[in-house]
Amino acid sequence: MKKAFIFDLDGVIVDTAKFHYLAWRNLAKGINFDFTEEQNEQFKGVSRVRSLELLLDMANYTATQEEKDIWLVQKNEEYLSYIKKMDQSEILPDVPRVLKHLLSKKQGVALGSASKNARPILERVALLDKFQAIVDGNDVTIAKPNPEVFIKGAQALQTQNVDCIVFEDSIAGVQAANTAGMISIGIGNAEVLHEADHVFANFTQISNEFLDHLIER
To answer: Global pTM?
Structure first.
């Protein structure tokens, strides 16, 4: 039986959330706002443009479109400066094992991420060849919790939505998978990701037997 396993990137495959946080925090300092890691949780799975809107709302700051355009570029350039230094040590625990097992079982493996930097990140950590399809922020027009990114991933793997399993660390991503009629697996905090069908702290808790069960169901 062939299924499609679709992985988010940030916080699922690699820990780039910390780089996003640093870049947003530095931007917030410029408008005299103390941006916290707790507030950064709301940005997971959210587009850059929407994240800036959220930040400005939090800071109660009214910006011109020119300011927004400049800040979006600055934030991305700072983020890119961090990911240029990435290597395989940034891969989250047991992700390579899970990918290897799924590919050994001849399952479909895709990436479904809001990041527009997904391909260079996967290249930096030497995982690009593990994904048969990549759908990222360059390929979608509507951000999660809209399911567009996952639906396109299923289409790229020629798989029905009902036969897709999505790994996500954000509530918006879990909601997107659920809306698409896919199995949602939360990676992270169970209280935050309570809408997921299954929740694990990380991939070390996901056994090969559990993956086989998902394939066979």
So the answer is: 0.86
